Amino acid sequence: xxxxxxxxxxxxxxxxxxxxxxxxxxxxxxxxxxxxxxxxxxxxxxxxxxxxxxxxxxxxxxxxxxxxxxxxxxxxxxxxxxxxxxxxxxxxxxxxxxxxxxxxxxxxxxxxxxxxxxxxxxxxxxxxxxxxxxxxxxxxxxxxxxxxxxxxxxxxxxxxxxxxxxxxxxxxxxxxxxxxxxxxxxxxxxxxxxxxxxxxxxxxxxxxxxxxxxxxxxxxxxxxxxxxxxxxxxxxxxxxxxxxxxxxxxxxxxxxxxxxxxxxxxxxxxxxxxxxxxxxxxxxxxxxxxxxxxxxxxxxxxxxxxxxxxxxxxxxxxxxxxxxxxxxxxxxxxxxxxxxxxxxxxxxxxxxxxxxxxxxxxxxxxxxxxxxxxxxxxxxxxxxxxxxxxxxxxxxxxxxxxxxxxxxxxxxxxxxxxxxxxxxxxxxxxxxxxxxxxxxxxxxxxxxxxxxxxxxxxxxxxxxxxxxxxxxxxxxxxxxxxxxxxxxxxxxxxxxxxxxxxxxxxxxxxxxxxxxxxxxxxxxxxxxxxxxxxxxxxxxxxxxxxxxxxxxxxxxxxxxxxxxxxxxxxxxxxxxxxxxxxxxxxxxxxxxx
Amino acid sequence: xxxxxxxxxxxxxxxxxxxxxxxxxxxxxxxxxxxxxxxxxxxxxxxxxxxxxxxxxxxxxxxxxxxxxxxxxxxxxxxxxxxxxxxxxxxxxxxxxxxxxxxxxxxxxxxxxxxxxxxxxxxxxxxxxxxxxxxxxxxxxxxxxxxxxxxxxxxxxxxxxxxxxxxxxxxxxxxxxxxxxxxxxxxxxxxxxxxxxxxxxxxxxxxxxxxxxxxxxxxxxxxxxxxxxxxxxxxxxxxxxxxxxxxxxxxxxxxxxxxxxxxxxxxxxxxxxxxxxxxxxxxxxxxxxxxxxxxxxxxxxxxxxxxxxxxxxxxxxxxxxxxxxxxxxxxxxxxxxxxxxxxxxxxxxxxxxxxxxxxxxxxxxxxxxxxxxxxxxxxxxxxxxxxxxxxxxxxxxxxxxxxxxxxxxxxxxxxxxxxxxxxxxxxxxxxxxxxxxxxxxxxxxxxxxxxxxxxxxxxxxxxxxxxxxxxxxxxxxxxxxxxxxxxxxxxxxxxxxxxxxxxxxxxxxxxxxxxxxxxxxxxxxxxxxxxxxxxxxxxxxxxxxxxxxxxxxxxxxxxxxxxxxxxxxxxxxxxxxxxxxxxxxxxxxxxxx
Lengths: 593, 593
Known about the structure:
The structure is a homodimer.
Chain A: H1 2-13, H2 27-36, E1 64-75, E2 79-84, E3 87-92, H3 100-108, E4 114-123, E5 138-149, H4 166-171, H5 173-176, H6 180-203, E6 207-208, E7 226-228, E8 234-237, H7 243-251, E9 257-258, E10 281-282, H8 293-300, E11 304-311, H9 314-317, H10 320-334, E12 338-341, H11 352-355, H12 359-368, E13 376-383, H13 384-404, E14 417-420, E15 426-428, E16 436-438, E17 465-470, E18 473-480, H14 485-495, H15 504-511, E19 518-522, H16 524-532, E20 558-559, H17 562-565, E21 570-572, H18 576-586
Helix pairs in contact in A: 2-6, 10-13, 14-15
């Protein structure tokens, strides 16, 4: 139900192609609004303008209008194109002597200056209509004009076709925000969040509650920002997620809670598209008696498996060097050997390893994987997670290769949702596989059918965690939580060996009549990214930080004088090398030494 | 227009009396929802229950229902009252042998345990209806029951009449949230914010944009929390308000922006009701030739003034000791002398100072202030702001006194809005009156008619700042901002002597075609406080901090081990006394020394 609704929402709000590359200027905001609600919002209430630049049509002919906007361009001192957030409109600069002052203003103002014009909506002369422009049938015959602000020489032009580096865009973010693409992304984000709110509040009675951002360090919260308080040695933390508060609200009877919440994680930006989960076929049984060395090796180990993916029409579109580069990628990045198998024996790979696959194994493989004649199988072996990771990556690489050759595999207008369930509750610790850690977090409830295994085989217990995937990208996840204090204590203290004292308030809350509860969190940035087709989450955030967490516009984080740190009872511990650097700076300058 | 709409919103959402003290349990959420929208939200979608406890009526008779809730109380092992966020319902515990297991569950579960029951809605026997309870005509004949979670002994009962200290309420916030009053406050807040969003987004095309919380220190931002980054000596700050971002969004063409934003101020909680502004009458001219010493003194100084307020029916309701206590308050807290004047000479105050007010001054005063016979005038003199502050405070005190005597002065159901305008742009610095500081902040635009005074008489310049007051409480404020970079530079550098380098990104943004712009921010906590009649803003926030900024539930802020501070290149500077304490703890124990 949830993903159905989300799918409708995405389709309703995004443009027909799903990827907004060539926008017809001016029509986007209107389309956005029309698609998401019936009543058209009043965009010129409270302000000096009577209309927006983008809304004027033949139906407005003869109307006296006042418009405000930026000067987009000027042609031969006769025409001027004015832009606001809604679109573009052509303004005719008066040429008669009596309007000399208006002409002077409109001809002398630099590009991107802000002007207010008043005049009449008139038809363009026959043959001069511009069908590519939503306001292309009309123009404005100006009577008066006012220069509201002049613009100095810009670091780049506000035109979509002008290429600029991301660093420059971030440094002058307020200029970049004037682009149609950024306007579209941010306004769509706002509409989309509003639709979500209407769905939750108005249709289903959810309650929107703000939880604090100044909180306490949670166990294992190594990625939480710390905030010194005015009490010596005492720190707040910015929570990684409101997950504890969510649970406490459920204990507090605030049924049907939601929040558009900020999450703070002190880690470098990750690329926002990752292969999250892949469907693969397990073919270990086919190769139980193989003679191929690396397959034998893998199957002899406890977690060992042989896995494969099939690339339909692979023989038609992939070349020998493509297959080689895929094998190299697997070897270089995953240290995994990958073997291609072709259904037809005579098209077999010219390699000694490949040839050692027996004919009956090949037939069995073709049967199991339902391979067509022109398919190619990529086969690997090894530890289960590693084998899955490498094939997941190769699957995406193949898709890119095939699409580059003209095959349409992924319809950009299609929103395909997928629920991923039955995760394990625990994983062996990487540094010490004898101990357990939570696959997600220690508050996830075990699967009801597996509770009996908690005391005997905890590794076999499935969790009630679920992930939501859109077009191969994880966009959200959640879980049913543990509401039983004893079970929570057992998992924290006995299985995970955590210090339960740090979570005493949560455990106590579970003791006081906590109802069974669960929830889900969507990654809004990534979801909007997928809907708009933006290449990076930085394109759907108004003021994003750079990859290294810097604000390139204001230069945050920045140095502070020691006296400003004093009230917080902290001082900077300069690392040894920068200390040396500092002292060398403080050295008197002796050119002769 | 704005305050009209806000007034309608407040009236629409709050209860008829404006102060929710005696709630009819169960009806509140429904009334809340009905009043704010036409379509009733579906409260039992996605969950196991078929209905909420609070919604069942005679119209549901005969229906098979499944309910979930907390056990509110139990009577003689026959009746049990079940509570959810929507209200209360009576459940009949089956007494026949065949339902022994159901009876056992429902009779043995401690209060506040969570149960799920299924059964039929039946009429209460004639005479047993409870008209005070919205579900009082029906009860549930239970067929099956399930104990979802047991509850241990609570620190206090979840009943509104049980008095608890605020510290206890904050420590067990998740229990306090189960109270009808907290449920009402938080759900009303959610609905009210949703109505605001619908008004802004759907009716007027505003765009909801999130601005960053990790930002850079702003000049004069002494109350901003600092956040160390992983770069040595570099800090982020939590912004006091998104004011710089607001302006940058305007420069970026994100016309009609709004946000429900968090503001972070590192200061103690203020009481949430303060005398903000008062209407008073200036009567300086009456006393130009006075013989009263403190009036003479005051009028001889440049900012000196004589001001008065009139308390209608004061002689009827106020006693001599009331007037004395008011004078004492003015003397103790404001160091101001206050003189009472009675219209009738024979009722004059028995004090040498009072008697020295000449009869003609008294008559003039009565005429000017339109004083009725039973009125009392409170008169003070001194520096303008001080005189206003003390009279503002006394006015509120008098109102409290008169209301305590049974007079109804302030209708709690009435929402009276007031705009305060024409503030001065600058004030003399308190520590150095020869220099200027901004009355609000340096980005406020001067009043257009006063711009010529900026170079000659800056103290006389009015600002384009405006405050919105509801029932005497400031609930919001805003301003038209400076969009001209030269004017902004002149005010920052020449008039305020600020270091403009720290604001170079903002000044540059103004240079690049900033449109004229302005806005307003409402204090949501305080507004909801006034609408719900809550005594403190802590009653309209789910997880508030205590007066000293502590989270009494989780014990934040908390200590951190030094190794967790290492990645941030900071260490704690322990104050001398706590250092001594620490070293004494580290001393070996020598009982003989």
